[in-house]
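Re: How this chain folds, sequence and tokenised backbone to follow
Notation: Tokens come from a learned vocabulary of local backbone shapes, not from coordinates.
Start of record: The labelled sequence and token lines come straight after this line.
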Amino acid sequence: MDMKKTWIAIAVAAFLPQVAAAEAPAVKPAPAPAGGEKGQWVSVSDTVLAGLADANQKPSPFTSGTAGVTVDRTNGDVYMIVNDRGVWKSTDKGATFQGACPPKTITGRCETPFALNMDPNGGRLMCFMIYGSAGATADGGKTWTKSKVGHLDFGGVDWEASGKAMIAIVHESGGKLMLTTDGGANWKELGKGFKGPVGIFDERTLLASKKDEGLLRSTDGGQTWAKVADPGPSGQVVYVFKGVGYLMTEKGLLASKDKGATWAAQGSAVKAAIGPLFGKDENHILAVGAKGVYQTKDAGKTWDVVAPLAPQISYTGAGCCYAWDPANSILYASQMGKPTFKLQLPPQ
């Protein structure tokens, strides 16, 4: 045997794998289907959607995929809407989901980021659904009450008063504004020509908007209205937390400490369309805009981008929705006809 050739062959064989490894492009490992790696958005709805798939039904944003997501900030429970298949709940951070309501109780889909209104203090959720039945739970999804009126775009709930008074806009109705004071058993029409934002502090103290008229307030259950602010482009619902009303606008956060009578900018400007999503307290807030997910820990004085937008999910498109589990530092996102995604953030 030619020993010189043998040693050359051994040297070349040892060298080639190193060259290949050095020249090969880096490959990002695929995310886990349910748990996900930190810093990556991953789908958490695949198993549910696969189990509900109908081979005879052509995929459509109106009949397939998910259509909304929200989180109970007090315990991390996730509520996901599957297009026309009701509410699905996860108690293990999106790893698994179970059907949460009886058939035909909550149907249709969410077509706005403000269709799912979760009580900031936990346990209670109102689902304002279009092309289906709206309804609510007052016990974390154990039981559900179907609303007499459905086809609702979005709405507010007086969680800090009775939890039974709600104000909502009817979908494709010319801006029909509706009010219930008994949890959806009966509704009263307050007029047409309204739009978001809407809000409610109690059954008599209401907020709504009309084109070119700004934000309006009523203290007599919607009989009369008076202009109280001109917020410009903003979110569609005023959220009330610890007695303060909050409205996210493209110029930043507006706040009212007197049941909507007066409004003032809170903190610095941030151009966001979805929010506020409250964290451990009223100072810890997330909002969603074109640049991604913003966070403030000082009630809006400073904002930082902490996450990109979810894949396939916009921040202004039909049915887009973002939710936050502050206890476990997890973001969720959904949009009509698309999967529901999850993003594990670093501990906050």
